[in-house]
Amino acid sequence: MDAALLETSLALVDTPDDGLTTRLYAILFDRYPAVRPMFSEDMGRQAKMLRSAIVAVVDHLDDPIWLTETLGSLGARHASWGVVAPMYDAVTECMVAAMAELGGDAWTAQMTDAWVEALDAVSGLMLLGYPSDAELAS
């Protein structure tokens, strides 16, 4: 995983007003309207939490124990909310779309590849935290 590329590309698209994660959710709900009921009406708090989580993951890329424990725990919570495996792919798709949109001409195919790889790894670690009897495929 190219930590330097993830850091520089995140700096390119991240905004302190949660613009990246706000845009992610707008794209997600447009492309996958069936997931909208899983969220509250006011997405501000959710956008802030996701932004914090993304920054924390990038800050801990060199700490596999932190990543495994933290993301596994987060995955267990997502399982309890009814999040299934295909939803992770949808979030990856929409996050990269939001990043590319916000990055404009400065966004590169290498950045897209790096984020798909990273978000797939995050998804995998979160899914490891699911209880063994959790429904993953819906």
UniProtKB/TrEMBL annotation:
Gene3D superfamilies: Globins. Pfam families: Globin (PF00042). It comes from the Bacteria. The keyword Iron applies. Residues 1-131 form the Globin domain. Keywords: Heme, Iron, Metal-binding, Oxygen transport, Transport. GO terms for biological process: cellular response to nitrosative stress; nitric oxide catabolic process. GO terms for molecular function: FAD binding; heme binding; metal ion binding; nitric oxide dioxygenase NAD(P)H activity; oxygen binding; oxygen carrier activity. Belongs to the globin family. This is Flavoprotein. It comes from Nocardioides pocheonensis.
